Amino acid sequence: MEARVTRWRLALVLVATFGVAAALPAGLAPLAPVAAESAAARDLEAAAPADVGVSAKRLERLAAGMQQMIDDGKLAGVVTLLARDGKLVHSHVAGVQDVESGAPMARDSIFRIYSMTKPITGVALMMLHEEGKWRLNDPVSRYIPGFADLKVHVGSNPDGSPRVVDAERPMTMAELMSHGGGLAYGLGTANYVDRLYREHGVLDADAPLQTMIDKLADLPLLAQPGTRWYYSIGVDVQGYLVAKLSGQSLPEFFAERIFEPLGMVDTGFFVPEDQLHRVARIHEEAGDGGLALSAMGGPTRTAMPAGPSGGGGLWGTADDYLRFTQMLLNEGELDGVRLLAPRTVELMRTNFLSPQALPTMRPGQGFGLDFATVHDPAAAGEPYAKGSYYWGGAAGTWFWIDPKTDLTFVGMIQHRGTAVREVQGVSRNLTYQAVVH
């Protein structure tokens, strides 16, 4: 690829000098047709692995590794997809959607992707950034006035009551997108602010997003803005902002501006009743060492929620999500449709955490705009190339994008328990050992 780029740079110099296409090196067509051809080449069409520097023999280890997780009873089912140089070189399906019914897993099975919703919300907000609707260093309170006078919880008073102080400065939009703004999530009980979120029902898909914003405006932050990375409700706030700044509801914006242009035909905030047979159920480890259905998440939604969650509300398929990740790997474009400029994608995969906040992340990693970023693979203990970025979902779905190696991987399971980390780690090892040049 570097040789091709070098030849094109030479070609551009010759054209600029002589002003004629005849100055192009032999075998090179004019720029516009080649650019179009190059874009079309990164279209996720199936290709022989050897054509893109991947060993078909070694890819068998990836498929076998995923199958082994099923055979060992660690997972009910899994779908994995791998693309290199814009071509699909691996697709594998194993196991069942539901251990009780025995319905087989299929490539088009539908999964609750939970927090893999977050990068989609981030892309939506950055599309509005490109339209000049907001800037990274803007205070969030410019768009949500109720956030203008937030307090910060700093411990307890001598009488045991909570102690709060004024925020030293407003959280910025960049901090909101990188989980550095001081918001909590309400998913646990160890932190006082998390407990408040739970007590007040801040996360409620059955209430309008404005209700969430109004509640957050009355609750303290858990840290001063910019001082700590803490996985937060910030992306649900971003979903509210997408709606406010665009004049559309979040589902409308997603459908019209992202899903339809990218051909993500099975992704949305609910599953139509006639497609329920395609939904993979969430499992967990049972007491007898086997697997059982989990109550996590409750029943599958079959109608639009009142408060669509930009942080975790989507269902979708592996193929749909691969189209999203390939768009990002293509620097904002897929099949001739451009959602973002290359520089915007680069911003999203750049660490935004301050040195003060960075130590709260995992070693070798940072956080960009709705993605975790890898800046030191050795410290992270992972085979990712430097500059990779990724995220996952609460029911085990996962993906990563590696611009240096020019690959993207999507894995879909529905599981809660120790097997999640195992399958994700194994997938990375077995993917990179198959890339041979």
SSE map:
Blueprint: H1 2-18, H2 31-41, H3 56-71, E1 77-84, E2 87-95, E3 111-112, H4 117-130, E4 151-156, E5 162-166, H5 173-177, H6 192-199, H7 209-217, H8 234-246, H9 250-262, E6 283-285, E7 291-293, E8 315-316, H10 318-329, E9 333-334, E10 337-338, H11 342-348, E11 365-367, E12 372-374, H12 377-380, E13 389-392, E14 398-402, E15 407-412, E16 415-416, H13 419-432
Parallel strand pairs: 6-16
Antiparallel strand pairs: 1-2, 1-15, 3-8, 4-5, 6-7, 9-10, 11-12, 12-13, 13-14, 14-15
Helix pairs in contact: 3-13, 4-8, 7-8
Description:
The strands form five sheets. This protein has a seven-stranded antiparallel beta sheet with strand order 2-1-15-14-13-12-11, with helices on both faces. A three-stranded mixed beta sheet has the order 7-6-16, with no helix packed on it. Strand 13 (389-392) and strand 14 (398-402) form a beta hairpin. 33% of the residues lie in helices and 15% in strands. Mean pLDDT is 92; it is low at 1-37. The protein has helices spanning 2-18, 31-41, 56-71, 117-130, 173-177, 192-199, 209-217, 234-246, 250-262, 318-329, 342-348, 377-380, 419-432; strands at 77-84, 87-95, 111-112, 151-156, 162-166, 283-285, 291-293, 315-316, 333-334, 337-338, 365-367, 372-374, 389-392, 398-402, 407-412, 415-416. The protein folds into three domains: 2-30; 49-125 and 263-432, Beta-lactamase (3-Layer(aba) Sandwich); 134-246, no CATH class. By secondary structure, the chain is of the alpha+beta class.
Question: What's the short version?
Answer:
The protein is α+β, with helices and mostly antiparallel strands and 437 residues long. Helices cover 33% and strands 15% of the residues. The strands form 5 sheets. Strands 2-1-15-14-13-12-11 form a 7-stranded antiparallel beta sheet, with helices on both faces. Strands 7-6-16 form a 3-stranded mixed beta sheet, with no helix packed on it.
